Amino acid sequence: MALIPLESNPDVMTKFIHQLGVPSKWTLVDVYGLDQDVLAIVPKPTLALILLYPHSKKAQAYTNGRKPFPINNGPTTKDKLLENAAKICSEYMARDPDELGFTMIALAAANE
């Protein structure tokens, strides 16, 4: 069985999640950086931040899918989710500073 590369185009992924049953009031949007000014343009509320990254030994050490539980990064609130998730992603990305293949998208409120 061949693996299919993960699509990171927010428009394509939004159509896909809507086909899976996610209500149309939610959309996926690009996140262009982790600075507060850049995060401020992400629509609110934000339900999730998705970090797409290349497979490497450094990545596998942190995200080992064989763990019987999700990695607990601590509590958050609806108002702080994007900021807290961005901090975790930034720390994760710093593990491999030479890697430039990271992409982030957020599940956020659709602009009506």
Give a verbal description of the structure.
It is a single chain. The chain has 112 residues and is of the alpha+beta class. The protein has one domain (28-109): Ubiquitin carboxyl-terminal hydrolase, domain 2 (Dna Ligase, domain 1, 2-Layer Sandwich). It contains four helices and three strands. The chain has a three-stranded antiparallel beta sheet. The longest helix is centred in the last third of the chain and has 14 residues, at 81-94. The N and C termini lie far apart (40 Å).
Order of helices and strands: HEHEHHE
Just give the CATH class. Answer: Alpha Beta
Oligomer: single chain
CATH architecture: 2-Layer Sandwich
Given the structure, what is the number of helices?
Answer: 4
Structural class: alpha+beta
Percentage beta strand: 15-25%
How much is the average pLDDT? 85
Strand order of the largest sheet: 1-3-2
Distance between the termini: 40 Å
Poorly predicted ranges: none
Main beta sheet: strand number and arrangement? 3 strands, antiparallel
Shape: globular
Count of distinct structural domains = 1
Number of strand segments: 3
So, the CATH homologous superfamily?
Answer: Ubiquitin carboxyl-terminal hydrolase, domain 2
What is the helical fraction, as a range of percent? 25-40%
CATH fold category name: Dna Ligase, domain 1
